[in-house]
Each structure stands twice: as structure tokens, then as C-alpha cells.
Design goal:
16 helices; Chr_Tranpt_l_chain; membrane; cell membrane
């Protein structure tokens, strides 16, 4: 039987320094963030084995929420117990939260100026290209069977044509993935590929964590986690009832925290649908601008919800000063988005340690990940519709409800710049951040010409 890993594999101070260093390098979405942790923890520090790292990643992908941050919590827990998980997860989001808070304030204060308008005229096409690339990357990695391709297409059609709620799509995909695995060998264990060079890691690929699952521990984690999660929301309901947007945002984003399977791009389709179409916190174009800002800051891309909350509360502050309402909303939404990640990981990690090779869970994850391709494709369509065309309308026929563009309202500049962004990302291999920089520069240079041409 594998020997259990000690609570503190390395000194907590050393681990904290490493997590702080990682937190400043987490640009480029979950793939880049996971790569940074892989390099630091597996290749450089040799604190954890390759297969052990990938085992943790596989199970974090089963959870709702940003998998990269959850992987940080999980590996922090492996290295230093609960304290390590709390430190790793907090540092992972802190720099991005502070940066996006500042950028949100700048946008609200100066977003109507010509300079900012020119900047976002450039970055919006880049965001479309980034989301298209995400569809390609996830699809290439995931759709290795015709049944999974069919599941991705069905998910796209369910969202685009029939407005099926995002949580229903995710749940159905998990069930279908499990059912498909019983007929076809579509579930593959990618937990590890061979041995590594170099010294033996401090946590080997077979080591178990010392902390055993127990009813008492689980009850304690759930109780503390739920109190921390919902106390700020209850406080807003009791003491800030004159600003109802705070309660609406607290409840809504608490709900999204439990359905954010497949990463930020997947859930953004749901967030955009509700924040724009139902609550009216911001416009479709502003949703794209928020994602562009989140792309330029470290940390999980789901941090874009902080921008959504800031803008929405600033415009509907109730009895509060708009800036105070925006700040409270921003912090509240960040809290209810990321606290559940700690709850899910710290609650489930001891059980996950004993269920690494459970094929039923892997099959459900396969189905969900396939559906995510369709979900992200739906998001790409949403962004393209509202940024490549100035007008659109809704066509309904029975259960079908489809938003279509007004062709005469097409924006030639946006189309051209989107083509440039797609070219440099797919043909030249440019990173999202570099592409955003190029498109922002083009937008700044071309905007005066556009204004003169009317």
C-alpha cells in the first residue's frame, strides 16, 4: 500500500513564496496557468510527480469552477494540508482581482471617451478570435470519437436554437457521457505517460495524503464553507436592501459557481445571457470588453464576473454612492465565485485520493468536456453577432429561437480585424495577450479614420 504523504511536505513559507511567484505568471487562460504550475511544481521544484499532478487535474476538471485555481488549492493541500490549500487558492486569484478592480473603475470612469472606445473597437475582434481558438483547442483534445462530436454539436444546437438552460446541458452531457462509455471505449485515462527524468519528487505518483475522509471532517468543512459562502449575501439582504442589485448579483453568481463546468468560456455564455438579456447589468459589447480586460490580467478568466458586477452595480446603486455600490458588488461577486472552489476541493480531496481510477466519473467528465466544445462555440457566435454587426433581431418558430444579424449593419473594420486576429493566432501561433495588444494598437490607430468616414 502506498505510504501517506506528510501534512507539510515542504515548509509553508517556501510554498507560499512559490505560490506568490506562480500567481504573477498566470496569464493566458487555464492552459497557460496549468503550464505554469506544471513547470514550477513538477519540473523545477520536484515537489510533486507528473502523474500525481495530472491525477489531481483530472478530478478538478470534474468540479464546477475554474479548474486551474482548484488545481492550485488541491496541490496546495497535498503539500501543506488545509493551510496550504487556502494560501495557494487565495494567492492564485488575488493579483488578478486587484488588477481587474482597477481596470473596471477606469472603464466606468473613462469608458465613454474616444480613446477607450478606440481601444475596445480593436480588442473586441481579438476576443472573438480567442474564443474561436478555444473551440479549436478543446475540440481537438476532446472529440476523439464520433459520438463525442455528435454530443458537442447537440449541445451547440440546444443552446443556440432552443435556448436550453446551460445547467441542463451540462447535466445531460454528464449522463450521456456515462451511457456512451458503456457502449464504446471513449473514455481514456490520460493520467500519465511514462516516467520522468530527474530526482524522485517529494510527493510520488502513488503517495496518498495523510488526511483520511471522515463524516466529522466533511460536516465541518461543509458547515464552515456554507457560512463563509452565504454570510455576505445575507448581510447584503439585511443591511443593504436599498440596493437590490447586490442581492441579485450575490444569488446569481452563487448559482453560477455550482454550474461552471468546462472553464470560464463555457459559463460565460450563460452569464452573458442572464447579465445582458435578463438583468440588464451591461450590454453585449461590454461583456466582450470585460472578457478582454480579464484576458490581460493574471488569474482565472472567470474573474470577468467582477467586471460585470462592478458595471451593473455602478449603474443601479440604489441608495448607495455608485462607487461604493460598485466596490461592494465587485468584492461580493468575487467572494461567492471563488469561496465555493475551496469548499468543493477541501471537501472532496480526501475522497478523490481514494477514487483516482473511477471510470464512471471519468466517463461523465468526458461527456461534459465534449459538450463544452458546443458551449464555447455558442459563446463565439454570441460575441460575433454583437460585435461584427451593429443590429440583430430574433426569429422564432415553434421551439426554435434564433438571434440573427441584420446583414446591412455589418462592420467592415471589425470583420477585417477579426480575420487578422484569427490569422496571427492560428497561422503564427501568437498568444491571446499578444493578439490583444496588436488589435488594441490597430484600433487606436484606425479609430480616428473611422470617425472621419462616419
Amino acid at each position: 500500500m502506498a505510504q501517506a504523504a506528510r501534512e507539510d511536505v515542504i515548509p509553508l513559507r517556501d510554498a507560499t513564496r512559490a505560490w506568490f511567484s506562480i500567481s504573477l505568471q498566470t496569464f493566458g487562460g487555464p492552459a497557460g496557468q496549468i503550464a505554469v504550475m506544471q513547470h514550477k511544481l513538477v519540473d523545477e521544484k520536484r515537489w510533486i510527480g507528473q502523474q500525481r499532478f495530472l491525477h489531481a487535474l483530472n478530478y478538478c476538471m470534474l468540479l464546477p469552477g475554474p479548474e486551474a485555481q482548484q488545481l492550485a488549492i488541491y496541490t496546495g493541500w497535498l503539500l501543506n494540508g488545509t493551510r496550504g490549500g487556502l494560501i495557494a487558492g487565495s494567492l492564485f486569484v488575488l493579483p488578478g482581482m486587484l488588477a481587474l478592480l482597477v481596470l473596471s473603475a477606469i472603464y466606468v470612469a473613462f469608458g465613454e471617451t474616444d480613446l477607450v472606445a478606440a481601444l475596445f473597437a480593436g480588442v473586441a475582434p481579438a476576443v472573438i478570435a480567442i474564443v474561436v481558438q478555444a473551440v479549436h483547442k478543446v475540440g481537438k483534445r476532446t472529440l476523439h470519437h464520433v459520438a463525442l462530436t455528435g454530443l458537442a454539436v447537440a449541445s451547440f444546437l440546444a443552446l443556440t436554437l432552443f435556448a436550453v438552460p446551460f445547467p441542463v446541458v451540462v447535466l445531460a452531457a454528464g449522463v450521456i457521457g456515462w451511457l456512451l462509455s458503456r457502449r464504446w471505449p471513449i473514455v481514456q485515462d490520460g493520467a500519465g505517460h511514462g516516467a520522468q527524468d530527474g530526482p524522485q519528487p517529494l510527493i510520488s505518483d502513488e503517495a496518498l495524503h495523510h488526511e483520511l475522509p471522515s463524516r466529522r471532517r466533511s460536516l465541518g468543512v461543509v458547515t464552515v464553507g456554507l457560512l463563509l459562502w452565504f454570510t455576505p449575501v445575507a448581510a447584503c439582504a439585511l443591511f443593504l436592501a436599498s440596493t437590490p442589485v447586490l442581492l441579485d448579483q450575490g444569488l446569481f453568481f452563487s448559482g453560477t459557481a455550482v454550474v461552471t463546468f468546462g472553464g470560464a468560456y463555457a459559463v460565460l455564455a450563460f452569464v452573458a445571457q442572464q447579465a445582458v438579456g435578463v438583468y440588464g447589468w451591461l450590454t453585449p459589447g461590454e461583456m466582450v470588453r470585460g472578457l478582454a480586460l480579464a484576458e490581460t490580467t493574471p488569474g482565472p478568466l472567470i474573474m470577468v464576473v467582477q467586471f460585470v458586477a462592478f458595471v451593473g452595480a455602478f449603474r443601479s446603486p440604489g441608495a448607495l454612492d455608485p462607487w461604493v455600490a460598485a466596490l461592494v458588488a465587485s468584492l461580493l461577486v468575487t467572494w461567492v465565485t471563488f469561496v465555493p472552489c475551496f469548499l468543493f476541493v477541501l471537501l472532496g480531496a480526501p475522497y478523490v485520493e481514494r477514487l483516482r481510477h473511477n471510470q464512471h466519473l471519468s466517463a461523465a467528465l468526458t461527456g461534459i468536456t465534449a459538450a463544452v466544445v458546443g458551449v464555447i462555440a455558442n459563446l463565439a457566435v454570441f460575441f460575433a453577432l454583437h460585435n461584427l454587426f451593429d443590429e440583430s433581431h430574433t426569429v422564432t418558430s415553434g421551439p426554435v429561437r434564433l438571434d440573427v444579424p441584420v446583414i446591412s449593419s455589418w462592420d467592415p473594420f471589425a470583420f477585417a480585424l477579426t480575420a487578422v486576429a484569427l490569422f496571427v493566432m492560428f497561422s503564427r501561433g501568437w498568444s491571446p495577450l499578444r493578439t490583444l495588444g496588436l488589435c488594441a494598437l490597430v484600433g487606436l490607430c484606425a479609430y480616428p479614420v473611422q470617425q472621419l468616414l462616419g
